[in-house]
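Continuing from the previous page...

OK, I double-checked the sequence for Putative aminopeptidase YsdC against my notes and this is the correct one:
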Amino acid sequence: MSFNTELMKRLVNAYSPSGDESEIAGIIEEELKDHVDEISRDSMGNLICRKVGGGKRIMVAAHMDQIGVMVTKIEDEGFLRFTNIGGIDPVLSLNQRVVFKNGTVGVIDKNGKAKTDKLKLEDLFIDIGADGKEEAEKAVEIGDSAVYVSDYHEDEKRIISGALDNRIGCYMGIEALKRLKESENDIYMVFTVQEELGLRGATTAAYAIEPEFGLALDITGSGDTPEDGRLAVGLGKGAAIKLKDRGIVVDPRVKNYMVDMAKVNDIDYQLEILEFGATDSGAIHLSKSGVPTGVISVPTRFVHSPTETIYKSDVEHCIDLLVKILGDSLEFLG
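Thanks. Re-ran it with the corrected sequence; updated structure tokens here:
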């Protein structure tokens, strides 16, 4: 299956930090309106795309939001102080460009005496080229958010871009619904909000949907770069089937089912244990009386940076596994 580059570019270029996901939601809704039976947005902003069926009720979550920064103060000199929206690394952020919703571009720099190896967010500021507070206030306001500026690169094997966390999960959900020919299941593909702030959209969506089985689509780290051997996940080795992260320990029944599905369908896979972070699965599996939940992850280098890197072959294996699961009767659930 050929990679849909045009769709991927539109997804990663959409401005949608946590709490302001309307632009990316609009792109996804337009893309899926002819491929599902129902589309709605709940009061949190989650985009819920449903293929109606009489079988098991499945919730698949792919978060739409991306990390960013929010202005907390405008200095007299016109520089902007800011806080984080999600997992912003102060060292990585130094000298990076950021762009606001209105197109204003700034550069992150540090206070003169701050030591680079001990940077904190309070040591940083954004320079938008304003000559004083009055000029800055014409461009931005306190509470305005911005995201990293990044360039999209795609070659035969790789994609390099910001916001692959988690626009690649959104891409997989979209492509899976397009490719799914038959399923008796009642499928809720939920493109969630505010995952980077604590799985908030998935929490409310799972409560409302009451799924019998849950899946999260997201990225994961990799352990295949020099002197980084604690994570047994590598790019080009297939779909990552999660066993554990900080939000979930996957039920062995779910893990064994997903592995069996991959084996039976000749889908390349690898097992993943992530020592940092969590996905929407952490919220889904704790909803109401509990939901058996798994995760399909795309191995990724340079997470939460403007140069996140993935292999297209891994994405295809993830989509193949997702399609097979959505079309299955899920008899292991009883």
